[in-house]
Structures are given as structure tokens and as C-alpha cells.
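## Example pair
The file below holds two records. Each record gives the amino-acid sequence first, followed by its C-alpha cell line.
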Amino acid sequence: MRDALEHLITQIKNSEEYTRYSREKERVKQHPWLKSRLDEFRRINFELQNTIDGEEQFDKLQEFELEYEEFQRDPLVSAFLEAENDLCRMIQSINFEIVDALDFE
């Protein structure tokens, strides 16, 4: 089992999604003020999506999007967020396939 997991991790690290994410992360790190703001953006986004439900969540997310709309237009920010999202989707897909194959409820 451990060998299979290590192989999967290696495959993920060799994927285009992870390579792009790593590259964009390094680009953002070259601008500490931008990285700090990006970390704040990601933290708030995570909290909004995981702590509030229903219509209030929709309203808060709309406010959040408007507040950070210009920030997200920054080419470094948008490239990083897109790469991060693609990597997360890949990992989520792997997780779904494992759960589905195991008929885990």
C-alpha cells in the first residue's frame, strides 16, 4: 500500500497540473506583498465556502467577489489561482475515483 501511495504522489508531482502550480507559486513568492494578499484572499474564500450556508453564503460570496474583483485581474494572481484550482480538481477527481471504486458511502 505504501509503495502504491508513493507512486501516486510521484505521478501527481510529475503532472502538468502540479508543475504549473509549483511554477506559479514560485512566481508569486517573488512578490511578498502579493503573496500576503493572496493568502488573505484564499483564507477568506475558504472560510466563506465552509462556514456559511444558504442565501447568506451566496450574498457574502458576491460581496467577496466584488471586493477582490480587481485583485483577481492581476496576471500573477489569476495564473496562480487557476493553477491551484486545476491541481485541486485533479486531486478531488482522484479522491472521487477511489471512493467510488471502493463503494464507500
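Second record, same layout:
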Amino acid sequence: MVDNQVVLSCTYLTVRAANKNITTLEGVQKEAKEFADFLADEGADQCGYCAPGFIMTVLAMSKELNKPSEEEINHYLNGNLCRCTGYKGQIRAINKYLEFKSK
């Protein structure tokens, strides 16, 4: 994340990040582990290539959207494509995680 906004690191020019607050997966380890546990419980863990971006996106979404619909979740995840799995398990995990966070 750059200044608390999700960016696609594969297309974000490094020079644009100068003098900005950068948060990586390592900077949100507790929250990342918490959500990763929901993914694992749903059998929706991924290979590791796209998982960090997917996790960062979901963590940001959980702070930005209040009770998002499945359409909003899909829109938010638009830049995180995974070729290893289907998204049914991920969507279940996201919904359970968001429900847990709202308690």
C-alpha cells in the first residue's frame, strides 16, 4: 500500500513512491496471518505468487468498505488474478473474515 491506498506493485512506478508511506505484507503481519487463517479454513490458500497482493487488497478493503456486497468484493479484487484456484473459497473466506472483523 502507498499512503494507505492499495496499488498494484507490478505496475506502480517506483519513482511515484518517493516520500510516501509504504506498507508491505511484513508491516501487517498480524492482520495478514489472521486473514490467511480464514483462507486456509476454506481451503482457499494460494500458491504464494499472488497471495501477498490478494491479502493486502482484502485488508485494505476491510478498512474501506462496510459490509461490501459480493459484487463490490469482486470489483475490489479486480487487479488480483489467480490462475491456481477458483474464487469461491476466497469469497467465502473474505465474507467470514469481514463478519469476524465487524464483531
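Notes on the second record: Residues 76 and 97 are 15 Å apart (CA to CA). The mean pLDDT is 88.
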